[in-house]
Design brief:
The structure holds four protein chains of four kinds. By secondary structure, chain C is of the alpha+beta class. Chain C has five helices and eleven strands, in the order H-E-E-H-E-E-E-H-E-E-H-E-E-E-H-E. In chain C, 56% of the residues are buried. Chain D is an alpha+beta fold. Among the domains of chain D are: 6-147, 2Fe-2S iron-sulphur cluster binding domain, sarcosine oxidase, alpha subunit, N-terminal domain (Ubiquitin-like (UB roll), Roll), CATH 3.10.20.440; 180-310 and 444-504, FAD/NAD(P)-binding domain (3-Layer(bba) Sandwich); 691-865, Gyrase A, domain 2 (2-Layer Sandwich); 925-1022, Beta Barrel (Elongation Factor Tu (Ef-tu), domain 3), CATH 2.40.30. In chain D, strand 10 and strand 11 form a beta hairpin. Residues 1-18 of chain D have low confidence and may be disordered. The chains are: A mainly beta, B alpha/beta, C alpha+beta, D alpha+beta. Bound molecules: flavin-adenine dinucleotide, nicotinamide-adenine-dinucleotide (NAD), flavin mononucleotide and zinc ion.
């Protein structure tokens, strides 16, 4: 069980959080301008990386705030926690096949 | 040269202290080029290779596996086989697979211990009952055996279930597919490997594929730990690692990879003789031939390639087992492990051509693809051989995510299986 | 404390009052009680908006805590900081709800904020005694050690499968005191869960 | 330590217990000889002492045969004295308090304990299954993959027989009456293992002020010190140091000692699973009283020290599995810790110094040591020298090449070992014995380090894997677990680790005055053989067991390799080595060694199989804890629940809520009761408890804009005081939820959601607000439980409400789809004139705590109108008569508003979540399943919900399907059955016939109609 450092409440058990999948997937400003396949890409296509993922979590049983996390999907180490809307930090990428 | 397995060959070899058994499959160094390279030596990849050889006469094939055969989800699943899926497209595919299961040991000359002991899906509330009825009725019209058991019928079929008529989750009824059951997971990988090898397929282990060579939108071959291998066609069947492979080929997939865990109890004498699944209470249980209770749990919700599941999921699962089977509270967990399952938004698989010509993907089976192994390999082989989706595979192309033709089997996958 | 017309507690069916009069509380590890209905208002707003905190202070008579988990108290109400822009304002007098809401709404008229009465949603359970922390810890993943979670603080978390708001009060008789707020439809579960958890330590139901 | 012998003890009863435990020494060890404990093993009544394990007590009584093996049913005895035991597994207790596969070596003896042996029939001495041993030649690893395939149908029969033969103990057959518990826990430092290493680590960190938890699986602290008679620390017996260390730890407030507690799992981020056996060791009379049987500790720590010691590795030699053959360290533990001689005539077989420690102790205790058989060409090392000095017979450069004895080892055969280690010279001397102890070396207990994904390195000198890098921060493995086998190194290592942990925690540990003095001796020199040769080729006569529990032999491993199963993972799965309840704690390194030798690979290249939790098996009950039965999941009830109960309601679970389903009167079944409720509502007045509907207050200047974005229809123009129905989609265009939202004032709305989606809708809105639209000035607050909600519905609704509130309820003053604040029965209320039944309806929200009062008041005053409570079932019928959908029943995550013919609510003018998805090609197709009404041609026939619809029925499958029945009821108001259905191209089929397939091959033709059956003009609603 992960220990996630909520920016507002401090380190709490994973149990208190809900997962929001990949971060930085912005809703298109003008959906009508998109082809069906571009829309499908926005809806469904994901990086799903083996290595560092930028993802969103919400402290659903705590302060109910969303935030971003950079996490290694193999070691599960959390490398950074940063607010919604912020640029992701620059991180060393572990290499996995 | 392969020996035929039979009672007689076993007896004959016993006299020679089993010193003369040949290898089940060879372990050749890969050639420089193949007609088809299958990436991923799980059940689906091996079955694909086998049916390419058997059904399509394409034998210049290599299966390239990064680790050991069947070491992915094939080797770590709870082995439930059934075909009672909701939508016509799924029903057709899984039923095709089930029919193949029914003759698989003989076809492969390898006992995969397919045991049709019956699969129960429990209903705990009015909503469950309604969904169950819908499923049963559509199954029947799809030619799939499926029957409804009321609570008393459930108790008669599986006496160790506690109906909990006054409990938190009373058992109100169940669907039963008698032809469903379990199979010996490792044997499926090994049996396909041996049978494919017998038809000339090369099986290469400990050889991760590290990249693709693509030119003019066409696949040329694969980079591997043992060097470059040229291939006219490449079939990727890497389950949890599908996104990694797609990223190597320059596109993305609509899947995410999450840890799914399972566990076994210590072995005991036979106590439960069927498979029991419950969506609402979230547990599924069967007993292996060795005597362990084999128990499937849920997924951790976050992307994870760590092949391990977390404690809260174990707790939830075992609480569910203790609810349905209060007599198992004294049973003990012997081992717990995890797999990496690749889940699609509609909980249905992808069997598809890709933006790269000659590159095919078979993935997205998520928590429930073991049961599909023979059928998946069959239709995928056909798709590859003809460069055209097999009719049973046609609904499962990547295009469906663009056009909106999703096959939402979340009902079927509400419990991982 | 004024009575609300025919107000029923979510735990009325357990007959706690009757139990409490019978139970002896000494030599028990845990004393449990349901607290009388409290008024509460949920406040959302931006602390960084100039004047906002002062306006609340004017309406409420206490400055808002500015760290999540912080609790500030005035004569009539406490302010519990639940999130970076969220507080729960609690008055022990259950009839105070509408007045509290109106006072705040008026004071905050010029601000982008939200003031919603929520007191009826909650049931408050008090756990006290030497094993109160051990009891709560069974279902709550927070670190309840006083060095980490000190008296005068609150936190939202889980108790087994339900959401809770936990407040730690000053120790009484050298033993910790926790007040746990749960949504009222979960009150029956929360009470029975805690009571069951406390059983091995000896548990008494006491009057609040 | 009790020194009194039983004879002098006041409690002693005749006959003298010492006489009844012939192998118990007169003194020594950590048992309380002053008290007797009686227990039963199979048919025998035996005694032991407090402090005994079942294994030590059995041995004290001279019992060695304790079980039968898994596959060949070979007689098996006690091999170890701890968690690694593969053989001595017993069935404890009687149904339903029975438990299979308990290791006798860890089972604490208590008065009244009753155990039986396993996997034998009819009894342990004579077991029919033993025939498998005779047939073993035909049952090599994986035999079942090669046979039982013809005829195909016969597999079922074969399988039954295979299953019957497998398994060990038996499951309880009844509900477990005991209680379990679990708890979270936190600390600064977790120390696993309370041997010298763990104790010194814990002491060091605790003295520095760290919050320490020390977990020990045993019931005593001390680890290996308990078994070592000669160990000394600072010139005193080590046990004195132990007693002081324990006393100091127990005196510290910041230390919690958990005995009988295994740390069974290391998870991510320094999270651990611990399993405490709280009351298994107590006599039955002392259990219960709120005390659980087991407790699961879910522990988060900042630092962790694994001081888990090492496990002695057995030698693999021919027929190494007979009762009476045990680990050298085990025999030593029985002697020193329990005062029990595991035999009277021993042979010691070793490849290192450890065997000599046992030989010397046995010798000293008066056990005859017939010979020490030493694989090493020369017996050299400090203990060997002592043994020589003591005059023991040492056969250096020799090996045991066979054993005899059916139920207990009787003699061993010894041969001279070739210098290659692969051949045997000489015919073999036979040595009689009743005990054969052996040692190949030691395997550090690296399980937790590996579970936490730490890596291993191979230590060639000690022939063992050592922990290398920890993957997770703040973890260290020390002492014997890290390959420091000498006591002084263990003490120093523990101290250093404790200090490092304290420093990492930001504490300042005091420097020790000086290092503790102790001997620092490990078991070198050693000669390593993974499989001791015999005078016959492997697999030909006799068996070299690698995994004793699963009956896997070295020959089986070679067979697997020969057949191409070369990866150690394949070898494991093909032969099942290491897959028993002991998880190969004894066998795995030997297996890897055998494989490496055969493949001519360096051993680390073969590698280990994955270490997985649990370290030793953990009861299911502990994982469930108290979350069972009524506490499994919350049942949510409304403020009026007690009223529903008193008034005979039957309930339906909707998510976690328990809702009144219908209120049968004497003799009524569901259909009768529901018909009555439905009629009463349409004819006069019904009342529904609708509290469970989700409610969200949406506040802020951009509240209407938020609604515009999440609902398919437009909201900006909704006037204050008015209500509107809304439909919410997911971004993929599928219907997610629906409900009525009302404008409370300019910047404030109240949204209602379906019962099941209350939490997910709030989460959905918050997510969009916080992540995508932070610019919107809106706050959301859940008020679901702030209010009790009751719906008055029916022609007399206005009349009753009028009596209890002071509002003008006329159509003009209070029209349909509007709301007003007011008081009902004196209680402040929000009254909404909205309707899900198609009748004149008022939905009344009052403060939750006053809900029951208002409800009861409505009843008192409604009596004259025949006010009738109706449940969810009647509500479903009423809304179906009007063709209103229920999300989750008419929809299943694959239905768009277009499919529901709800285009009218889908705005063309603005964007909203999910809109773009609706224009995708497959979503626009006319042959999608669409919502329609169905009228059966036989009006009395009620279709089954979920019923499949076809165009024409035929025998052969698959029959192409058109869709399914989503809702179906008897409608008393229509005087016939009605149904809603999703039908392919349904809107194009209006007036046409579809067929519903019924059970038993019957069919029901139905006419496709508009989904609206009652009051088509909607007059009643506005009446
Ligand atoms: C715990 C658990 C329980 C389950 N229970 C059931 C069940 O009861 N019933 C059911 O039907 N299904 C179940 N499933 C799902 C089922 O196991 C999978 O859907 C199925 O086994 C997938 O088979 P596969 O051959 O596609 O994948 P895998 O067996 O995972 O094979 C993929 C292979 O690709 C290899 N690979 C990956 N990357 C590379 C690379 N770069 N180069 C070369 N090779 C590579 C991997 O090593 C792996 O061997 C379960 C899954 C899990 C994890
Ligand atoms: N000379 C030799 O050849 C040799 C070999 C091995 C050990 N030893 C001696 O053994 C001692 C080793 O000391 P140590 O403290 O490192 O180990 P130890 O064996 O004394 O103690 C380890 C303790 O950890 C406990 N444990 C193991 N796994 C556990 C788990 N998962 N959960 C809870 N408890 C667990 C064990 O029950 C044991 O009490 C030293 O005295 C050393 O000299 C000597
Ligand atoms: C159906 C099934 C039954 C299993 N039975 C056992 C068993 O009896 N003993 C055991 O140790 N492991 C058993 N396992 C688990 C495997 O040992 C192993 O954990 C699993 O294949 C995952 O591999 P890994 O743990 O090496 O990653 C079983 C696995 C499956 C899928
Ligand atoms: Zn938070």
């Amino acid at each position: 069980m992960l220990l996630i450092d909520c920016p507002h409440c401090g380190p709490r058990a994973e149990l208190e959080f809900s997962y929001g999948h990949e971060a930085h997937i912005e809703r298109p400003k003008d959906p009508d301008a998109l082809s069906d396949s571009d829309w499908a890409a926005y809806l469904f296509l994901r990086e799903n990386p083996k290595g560092v993922i930028l993802e969103r979590w919400v402290h659903s049983h705590g302060c109910r705030r969303w935030f971003n996390v950079a996490r290694d999907t193999v070691s599960y180490e959390i490398l950074a926690v940063y607010p919604m809307g912020a640029e992701p930090p620059k991180l060393e990428q572990a290499r996995y096949v | 040269m392969q020996a035929r397995y039979s009672f007689f060959s076993l007896a004959r070899n016993a006299l020679g202290y089993h010193e003369n058994w040949p290898e089940a499959w060879r372990s050749p160094e890969p050639r420089g080029s193949y007609d088809v390279v299958v990436v991923g030596g799980g059940g689906h990849g091996l079955a694909t290779a086998y049916y390419l050889a058997k059904e399509h006469g394409i034998t210049n094939v290599a299966v390239i596996e990064r680790g050991w055969l069947g070491g992915g989800n094939t080797g770590r699943n709870t082995t439930i086989v059934r075909s009672n899926y909701l939508w016509d497209e799924s029903a057709a595919l899984y039923e095709h697979a089930l029919k193949l299961w029914e003759g698989l040991s003989q076809d492969l000359n390898y006992n995969v211990m397919f045991s049709q002991r019956g699969v129960l899906n429990l209903a705990h509330n009015q909503h469950d009952l309604r969904e169950l009825q819908r499923r049963i009725r559509s199954n029947r019209l799809n030619g799939i055996d499926s029957e409804f058991l009321d609570a008393a019928g459930v108790k008669a079929f599986c006496p160790v279930i506690d109906l909990r008529s006054d409990g938190r989750y009373p058992v109100l009824g169940a669907s039963l597919q008698r032809r469903g059951g379990t199979a010996r997971h490792d044997a499926v990988a090994w049996g396909y490997a041996r049978a494919a090898d017998a038809r000339g397929v090369h099986i290469v282990q400990n050889c991760p594929v590290t990249g693709f060579r693509i030119s003019n939108g066409r696949i040329q071959g694969v980079e591997t730990a043992k060097g470059y291998i040229e291939a006219k066609k490449v079939a990727v069947v890497t389950a949890g690692h599908s996104s990694v492979m797609a990223n190597m080929a320059g596109f993305r997939l609509p899947v995410h990879s999450v840890p799914l865990q399972a566990l076994v109890s210590e072995p005991v004498k036979p106590v439960i003789d069927c498979v029991v699944m419950s969506g609402a209470v979230h547990a599924y249980v069967s007993q292996s031939d060795k005597g362990e209770l084999v128990i499937g749990a849920g997924v951790d919700k976050y992307v994870g390639y760590g092949q391990r599941g977390s404690l809260p999921v174990t707790e939830e699962t075992l609480a569910a087992v203790c609810e349905l089977f209060p007599l198992f509270r004294r049973m003990r967990m012997l081992r717990q492990w995890g797999g990496i399952v690749d889940v699609c938004p509609d909980a249905s698989p992808i069997i598809s051509k890709t933006p790269v010509q000659g590159l095919y993907f078979n993935c997205g089976w998520g928590t429930g693809g073991f049961k599909a192994t023979p059928g998946s390999g069959w239709v995928f082989a056909d798709t590859i051989a003809n460069d055209n989706p097999h009719p049973l595979a046609a609904p499962y192309t990547l295009e469906r995510f663009t056009t909106g033709y999703l096959i939402d089997e979340h009902g079927a996958a509400a419990v991982a299986h | 404390m004024a009575e609300l017309l025919e107000q029923h507690s979510a735990l009325a069916h357990l007959g706690l009052v009757a139990q409490a009069t019978r139970a002896r509380s000494e030599s028990q590890g845990v004393a449990m009680s349901e607290l009388p209905y409290r008024a509460a208002v949920n406040l959302r707003g931006r602390l960084d908006e100039p004047g906002f905190a002062a306006a609340v202070d004017a309406g409420l008579g206490c400055l808002l805590p500015d760290r999540v988990g912080g609790v500030a108290t005035s004569d009539t109400a406490s302010a519990l900081m639940l999130g970076p822009d969220e507080w729960l304002l609690v008055a022990e007098d259950g009839t105070e709800g509408p007045a509290l809401r109106e006072r705040l709404a008026k004071a905050l008229d010029d601000y982008f904020c939200s003031v919603v009465e929520v007191g009826q949603q909650y049931c408050w359970i008090r756990l006290a005694g030497p094993e109160a922390a051990a009891t709560l810890q069974k279902g709550c993943p927070l670190d309840l050690d006083p060095a980490v979670f000190a008296a005068g603080h609150c936190a939202q978390s889980l108790l087994s499968k339900i959401d809770v708001l936990v407040c730690r009060r000053d120790d009484r008789d050298g033993a910790p005191v926790f007040e746990v707020a749960v949504r009222r439809s979960f009150a029956d579960y929360a009470w029975r869960w805690l009571h069951d958890a406390a059983r091995e330590y000896g548990v008494a139901v006491v009057a609040a | 330590m009790a020194q009194t012998t039983a004879e002098t003890s006041p409690q002693a009863q005749s006959p003298a217990p010492a006489a009844r435990q012939p192998f118990r020494l007169r003194d020594g060890g950590r048992v309380d000889r002053s008290r007797l404990v009686s227990f039963r093993f199979d048919e025998r009544e035996l005694t032991g002492h407090p402090g005994d394990t079942l294994a030590s007590a059995l041995l004290a009584n001279g019992v060695h045969l304790v079980g039968r093996s898994f596959k060949y049913h070979r007689p098996r005895g006690i091999v170890s004295a701890g968690a690694e035991e593969p053989n001595a597994l017993v069935q404890v207790g009687r149904d339903p308090r029975t438990e299979p596969n308990i290791r006798a070596t860890q089972l604490e003896l208590f008065d009244g304990l009753s155990v039986s042996s396993q996997n034998r029939w009819p009894n342990l001495e004579f077991d029919v299954g033993g025939v498998n041993n005779l047939l073993s030649r035909f049952l090599p690893a994986g035999f079942y993959y090669k046979t039982f395939m013809w005829p195909a149908a016969a597999w079922e029969t074969y399988e039954k027989a295979i299953r019957q033969a497998a398994g060990l103990g038996v499951s309880p057959s009844k509900r477990d009456p005991d209680a379990y518990d679990k708890t979270f826990a936190h600390c600064d430092l977790l120390v696993v293992g309370a041997g010298p290493t763990g104790l010194s680590a814990a002491l060091t960190a605790a003295r520095a002020g760290a919050r320490v938890i020390l977990a020990e699986q045993d019931f005593l602290l001390g680890g290996d010190l308990l078994s070592d008679r000669s160990a000394a620390i600072d010139g005193r017996p080590a046990l004195e140091w132990l007693a002081e260390a324990e006393a100091e730890l127990r005196s510290l407030d910041n230390v919690r000692i958990l005995t009988r507690t295994i740390c069974f799992a290391a998870f991510d981020h320094n999270f651990f699973g611990l399993h405490e056996r709280v009351s298994d060791h107590l006599p039955f009379a002392e259990r219960g009283d709120g005390r659980p049987r087991h407790r699961l500790w879910k522990l988060r720590t900042r630092q962790a020290i694994f001081a888990t010691g090492a496990i002695e590795r057995p030698l693999v030699f021919r027929d190494n599995d007979r009762p009476g053959i045990m680990l050298a360290s085990a025999a030593r533990s029985y002697l020193n810790r329990w005062g029990v001689m595991a035999g009277s005539n021993a042979v010691v077989f070793t490849g290192n110094e450890s065997g000599y420690a046992t030989a010397l102790d046995l010798h000293q205790a008066g056990v005859r040591v017939a010979a020490v058989v030493d694989l090493r060409a020369e017996a050299e090392g400090p203990l060997s020298e002592e043994a020589k000095a003591a005059g023991l017979r040492i056969l250096a450069g020799h090996a045991v090449i066979g054993t005899e004895g059916d139920k207990r080892v009787k003699k061993v055969r010894v041969g001279r070992l070739g210098s290659d280690g692969a051949s045997i010279w000489g015919g073999g001397e036979e040595i009689a014995c009743d005990l054969l102890v052996n040692s190949a070396g030691w395997s550090p207990t690296v399980h937790l380090h590996c579970q936490a994904k730490g890596s291993l390195v191979w230590d060639e000198a000690h022939a063992c894997f050592l922990p290398d890098k920890a993957m997770q921060k703040g973890q260290a493995t020390v002492g014997a677990a890290a390959g420091a086998f000498g006591l002084a190194s263990c003490l120093a290592g523990g101290e250093a680790a404790g200090r490092a942990a304290a420093e990492a925690l930001g504490l300042a540990p005091r420097a020790p005055a000086r290092r503790l003095e102790a001997e620092d001796r490990d078991f070198l020199p050693m000669r390593q053989l993974y499989c001791v040769p015999s005078d016959k080729p492997l697999g030909q006569g006799g068996k070299h067991f690698i995994d004793q529990q699963n009956d896997v032999t070295a020959a089986d491993l070679l067979l697997a390799l020969r057949e191409g199963y070369r990866s150690i993972e394949h070898v494991k799965r093909y032969t099942t080595t290491g897959m028993g309840t002991d998880q190969g704690k004894l066998g795995n390194v030997n297996a890897i060694g055998v494989v490496a030798e055969h493949l001519k690979l360096p051993l680390p290249e073969v590698g280990v199989t994955t270490f997985r939790a649990p370290y030793t098996p953990v009861s299911f009950g502990a994982f469930a804890g108290r979350d069972v039965d009524a506490l499994l999941d919350p049942v949510r009830t409304t403020p009026m629940h007690s009223w529903h109960e008193r008034n005979g309601a039957l309930f339906e679970d909707v998510g976690q809520w328990r809702r009144a389903w219908y209120y049968p009167k004497e003799g009524e079944d569901l259909r009768r009761a529901v018909s009555r409720e439905v009629k009463a509502t349409r004819d006069s007045l019904g009342i529904l408890d609708a509290t469970t509907l989700g409610k969200i207050e949406i506040v802020g200047p951009d509240a209407a804009e938020l609604l515009n974005r999440v609902y398919t229809n437009a909201w900006s123009k909704l006037e204050v005081g008015r209500c509107r129905y809304g439909l919410m989609l997911k971004e993929d265009g599928m219907v997610m939820d629906d409900g009525v939202t009302s404008r409370l004032d300019e910047t404030r709305f109240l949204m209602t959601t379906t019962t099941g989606n209350a939490a997910s809708v709030l989460a959905h809105l918050e997510e969009w607000l916080q992540t995508e639209w932070p610019e919107l000035k809106v706050y959301l607050t859940s008020v679901t439980e702030q209010f009790a909600t009751m719906t008055l519905s029916g022609p007399n609704a206005r009349r009753l409400l009028g009596e209890l509130c002071d509002l003008d309820l006329s159509n003009e003053a209070f029209p349909h789809m509007s709301w007003q604040p007011g008081r009902v029965a004196g209680v402040p209320a929000r009254i909404f004139r909205i309707s899900f039944t198609g009748e004149l309806s008022y939905e009344i929200n009052v403060p939750a705590g006053q809900g029951l009062y208002v409800w009861q008041t409505l009843f008192r005053h409604g009596e004259k109108y025949g006010i009738t409570p109706y449940g969810t079932e009647a509500m479903h019928v009423l809304r179906a008569e009007k063709g209103f959908i229920i999300v989750g029943q008419e929809t299943d995550g694959s239905v768009t508003p277009l499919d529901l013919s709800m285009d009218w609510i889908v705005s063309k003018k603005k964007d909203f979540i999910g809109r773009r998805s609706l224009s995708r090609t497959d979503i626009q197709k006319p042959d999608r399943a669409q919502l329609v009404g169905l009228l059966t041609q036989d009006p009395a026939l009620v279709l089954p919900e979920g019923g499949a619809l076809v165009e024409t029925m035929r025998e052969e499958t698959p029959v192409p399907m058109l869709g399914h029945v989503t809702s179906s009821y008897w409608s008393p108001n229509c005087g016939r059955s009605i149904a809603l259905a999703l039908v392919k191209g349904g809107r194009g089929r209006l007036g046409k016939t579809v067929i519903c397939a019924l059970d038993g091959g019957k069919t029901a033709p139905c006419t496709v109609v508009e989904p609206l059956f009652f009051d088509k003009e909607g007059e009643r609603l506005r009446g």
